[in-house]
Amino acid sequence: MHELAGEAPADTAPLRYPFDATPAPGRALAVAPGVLWLRMRLPMSGLNHINVWALDEGDGWTLADTGMQSPETATAWQSACAGPLQRRRVLRVICTHMHPDHVGMAGWLTRHFECRLWMTRLEYVTCRMLVADTGREAPADGVRFYRAAGWDEDALESYKARFGGFGKAVHTLPDSYRRIVDGEPLWIGGRSWEAVIGRGHSPEHLCLYCADLKLLISGDQVLPRITSNVSVFPTEPDADPLSEWLESLGSIRERVPDDVLVLPSHNEPFRGLHARLGALIAEHEMRLKRLREELATPKRALDVFDVLFRRRIGIDMLIFATGESIAHLNCLITRQQATREVDARGVNWYRSL
Ligand SMILES: [Zn+2]
To answer: Model confidence over 248-257: pLDDT tens digits?
Structure first.
């Protein structure tokens, strides 16, 4: 669910990073009046942290995102509560989207503080669905999907062995939630914030924009140094999340002014939102163009990694690389620039039109 398969673009965008330091686990840095930046560790080698935000409500806090479920994250939250959060209650937990590094501790925090979880509907419902897959056997539809992408039997065995891991990184969600809808004004810390929904990285991803403070909590929708994973998964093989992603980036550029300080879930707070949005769109369009050229001769999803990613793809990255390749291929199909044929063994072959 992370941003690892994407290729980091060249540092062309003129982004500015106003903070020199990053907060240690359990500590916080103020990034705006009443807005604290905290960091939780992630147990991955590439992306080792997530940024979360605490918004001062006077008598307590609204939290935005929570970290992955682990005893270490629980300890970090306990230190934060005793330290920078001054033992004041958490009044509400907002999650930008359903990936475990964002939603992992939401159930723990809402139970501990007897408060509610606020999320968009598709993020809440999809999270409940994925958690329910935990412990199940890998479905035949999933095996068929990855076989169609060109995976060999060894890779398919590793998919089966690893299926259902999602729920292990997520503390049981509360059984009810407060829905957030696109454009809704939210009153947080005595100020109005606007819900800005994006799609593509996850189904109904929430960003929060405060005109008053000139802040955008961007989640994984806009990251400064890495490219968010945009993937097709076996549940919806014909999905076209890349078109949704590109459309969302364009809509954020229209709705949120360039002079905000962006608070992303990974890397550091930055200025230069519109430049970054433009660079992300340009990077994907460039990859789509190269991919279309590559499909002059028919290829499987597995055959186009070299065109899309700079790094070599090992078996641990295979799901994300495959999902991201199919996202690009399905986008070309939507644009009627490519077509897909299935061979006798059930493998999909793509060629440009
Ligand atoms: Zn994510």
So the answer is: 999 999 999 9
pLDDT in tens, 55-91: 999 999 999 999 999 999 999 999 999 999 999 999 9
In whole angstroms, give the CA distance from residue 209 to residue 195: 7
Whether this model's pTM surpasses 0.85: yes
The shares of helix, strand and coil residues in the chain, as percent rounded to the nearest 5, are: 35, 20, 45
Among candidates 223, 173, 262, 217, which has minimal Cα distance to 52?
217
Reading the block at residue 194, the tokens are 């606007």
Measure 228 CA to ligand 1 centroid, in angstroms.
Answer: 7
Cβ neighbours of residue 103 closer than 8 Å, sequence gap 6 or more = 65, 66, 95, 97, 119, 123, 127, 170, 173
Contacts of 45 (CB under 8 A, 6+ apart): none
Residues 6+ apart with CB under 8 A from 345: 147
Largest CA distance in the chain: 65
Residues 6+ apart with CB under 8 A from 135: 164, 167
User: How far does residue 274's CA lie from ligand 1's centre (Å)?
Assistant: 21
Ligand 1 centre distance from Cα of residue 2 (Å): 5
CA–centroid distance, residue 51 to ligand 1 (Å): 12
Ligand 1 center from residue 220 Cα (angstroms): 5
Angle at 65 between CA 250 and CA 48, to 5 degrees: 90
Residue 82 CA to residue 92 CA, distance in Å, equals 18
For residue 223, the one-letter residue type is: L
DSSP structure string for 68-94: -SSHHHHHHHHHHHHTTTTTPEEEEEE
Are 108 and 74 within 8 A, CB to CB? yes
- The answer to whether 173 touches 127, Cβ cutoff 8 Å, is yes
CA 84 to mean position of chain CA atoms = 27
